[in-house]
Amino acid sequence: xxxxxxxxxxxxxxxxxxxxxxxxxxxxxxxxxxxxxxxxxxxxxxxxxxxxxxxxxxxxxxxxxxxxxxxxxxxxxxxxxxxxxxxxxxxxxxxxxxxxxxxxxxxxxxxxxxxxxxxxxxxxxxxxxxxxxxxxxxxxxxxxxxxxxxxxxxxxxxxxxxxxxxxxxxxxxxxxxxxxxxxxxxxxxxxxxxxxxxxxxxxxxxxxxxxxxxxxxxxxxxxxxxxxxxxxxxxxxxxxxxxxxxxxxxxxxxxxxxxxxxxxxxxxxxxxxxxxxxxxxxxxxxxxxxxxxxxxxxxxxxxxxxxxxxxxxxxxxxxxxxxxxxxxxxxxxxxxxxxxxxxxxxxxxxxxxxxxxxxxxxxxxxxxxxxxxxxxxxxxxxxxxxxxxxxxxxxxxxxxxxxxxxxxxxxxxxxxxxxxxxxxxxxxxxxxxxxxxxxxxxxxxxxxxxxxxxxxxxxxxxxxxxxxxxxxxxxxxxxxxxxxxxxxxxxxxxxxxxxxxxxx
Length: 504
Description:
Blueprint: H1 6-14, H2 32-45, H3 52-70, H4 74-87, H5 93-100, H6 104-112, H7 120-135, H8 140-155, E1 156-157, H9 163-174, H10 180-189, H11 197-211, H12 216-239, H13 244-247, H14 251-304, H15 309-328, H16 335-350, E2 362-363, H17 373-399, H18 404-425, H19 443-464, H20 467-501
Parallel strand pairs: 1-2
Helix pairs in contact: 1-8, 2-20, 3-4, 3-7, 4-6, 6-7, 7-10, 8-9, 8-12, 9-12, 10-11, 12-14, 12-16, 14-15, 14-16, 14-18, 15-18, 17-18, 17-19, 18-19
């Protein structure tokens, strides 16, 4: 039997243990409007690579941005927003009734009426995050995020006046799975309940300070390594909240339950990997179609007077094949790794005050500020190798008949797919804990680094320059939603006439 430390005791004192009020889904069967709206949302979401927990918030932001152009009345915006969310099944009919009592219009008032130096686009993003937060009635998830922050903060010992902010940013991003918009809203929430002009501007400053901080990448990497024990602990709670307190005070019960939950999570993970792979292929394939038929084919015909079918065919087939090959090689944690994870989770719960003394704490090193001659030599060597990798690919493609533009397309999608495949492979790291943290770099890792780095930057740029998403949002969505509104009103009218005229 173990005695809970102060931080674990504080966590359990704030948890609901499953007694949070839940809304029963009493939705009627889908009508034509709901079917069309849901189909549209699935097509729209395929254009962006987002985790499942971020899809609704992004939809709220997209709807708000469009509605707020036409109306500044919080009550009207709220009504239209809830209607569209209900159409697309982001909220149920029963939730729509209860959510209205939360007075979303009051929340929107402070955002609609905001006048200040913070960009309006950012304000809309924060508004979408607060509304999404209203929909999540279970607050236990947030309590685990704060608990994880306290654990990680013990082990991050960098010298920086904003260290609490940086660790909070990284924990919210990696452990809670929040996107930048939600993180910004959470930072704003630290300033108090009511956000005024000064608090908006301070939150904007702190968000950008953390996001662009020179130590942020190191902290993110460190936090990601520390996450597995904290994630499985959260999973154990949500698997069976009512017995959580009993489990965490008995080692034998804890190990038994942790093994059970971990087995379930790993079985589900294979499905998540397949889904993520499919979404990545679809996202890249749709983008490829735009480039192929909008740029590649016209360019080939205009410059060379013909279309080379071999490079075009390879460029179409290569992305899904590469994704399939990569994801098929992903392996889940083995039994030894699972045992190590469970052991580490119990240790973290039992030895909170000792974590700051572990060898793997994140500290300032002599290399952080001072770079010697050797560092610059390595940097030059790396950039020469970086260029060499892409030159070798470019040269090889030329040997098999690729033109300049088709080479560019191939390399572009090679980097994007490689990065998506790498990101999918990181899903398995969620439940992977290894006692040994030494360097383990293979020749393939060295060769793939320039490709992954380029893919990371390109994917960020691609998300900002997604022409299909732009077309959906500003050309198709507004008239489509107007048509859906007409169909919905017409269906309601027919229902009324039916009740009036049909005599039983």
